[in-house]
Amino acid sequence: xxxxxxxxxxxxxxxxxxxxxxxxxxxxxxxxxxxxxxxxxxxxxxxxxxxxxxxxxxxxxxxxxxxxxxxxxxxxxxxxxxxxxxxxxxxxxxxxxxxxxxxxxxxxxxxxxxxxxxxxxxxxxxxxxxxxxxxxxxxxxxxxxxxxxxxxxxxxxxxxxxxxxxxxxxxxxxxxxxxxxxxxxxxxxxxxxxxxxxxxxxxxxxxxxxxxxxxxxxxxxxxxxxxxxxxxxxxxxxxxxxxxxxxxxxxxxxxxxxxxxxxxxxxxxxxxxxxxxxxxxxxxxxxxxxxxxxxxxxxxxxxxxxxxxxxxxxxxxxxxxxxxxxxxxxxxxxxxxxxxxxxxxxxxxxxxxxxxxxxxxxxxxxxxxxxxxxxxxxxxxxxxxxxxxxxxxxxxxxxxxxxxxxxxxxxxxxxxxxxxxxxxxxxxxxxxxxxxxxxxxxxxxxxxxxxxxxxxxxxxxxxxxxxxxxxxxxxxxxxxxxxxxxxxxxxxxxxxxxxxxxxxxx
Length: 506
Known about the structure:
This protein is an alpha/beta fold and 506 residues long. It contains 13 helices and 17 strands.
């Protein structure tokens, strides 16, 4: 048995044994196992694969997931045409390790891309490489400067195009440098193709990352001009205090600026929601154009995200500092004209590492033994018990800022977070246990650590077993290049990863 398969078998055995034990003193029965998904037909061998990654899109901000504002109408319509994962967790609260895990089905501690500036080792087996080995032409279009050659995440792609995002070191050439630009680049590339091979395209859009610079009119869909001008002025002051989209801005920081934190968070969310609205329309336009072309109607479209954004729900603004739903609960919507005969919603928890094996299985491509995730049951295997396996996530500082080190395990209606180091500037408990026992509004508000000791013990055991097993699987990093890419330091500075650990000053 290959080492990775041993790891998966070991964790699966531990979880199976723990799930089989009676829970004496537990305060509620476990939720019933969800019914199997409708049977689907394996995709044709020559189906195109289109993976659209909306960087920074949290599921908690989407109407189909219960959000009251109509931010992503097109994504909601796609849910009516395919399969939606309703409880899908990113394995990291920031972009680069999240994408690396999505591409490799490895946790960040295994693939080694955890801090800004880390590179994916050549030993990693990526989704692009697997698709290429199976006859696909591969292309990456990225608006994030660290999702590409600088981090080795271009591994396996035949064609790579980078578009400056709102936080790029090189000033954007205007509001067109958004997902609209990505669309034009993608369509231009397709028009110039001469190969008849099936295509795997990955897109990483940056519209939703600070400063949420989507152009009007969609960018101002939910906010008036006066409030927008006020928000931009305050955000400019915060960036002057600590530059970069990944920040430790807190309510106390805003109070130092004599700004009401709630008022600022409300305005920031409106601008963010406008960016979602804009990006959603761009996805719809791109998809409509592709589906009108010969051979693209049988494409497997997958829309997902890297992480969400916090708006002071738990004391911080931005991302990278927590494992709450606002940071790591992200959408996954799959659609295919013939693959899914009717829509279905998967409620069992899944994670980023599960996406690659699931996609490969749908396309009838063997899953590599190195994968730490599992292909999730979409009806291809109705007897599968995979839906009962807990999912995990982990976080550590992406740069020099003290954003905290923590791990999470989640099951149906349960989540346990253990922090080795808490983020600076916020008051949190080192151990948190959340249960869905009354209404969804209570989720992540009451800490059950002291009042549900049996459940706490079980979740702690899951996390200990996972940490022990994943720690045995670490890819060796590549030798350091003799001459590092000169762009790297500039990019890390623009993103705010080199600003040090000193507290901000007004």
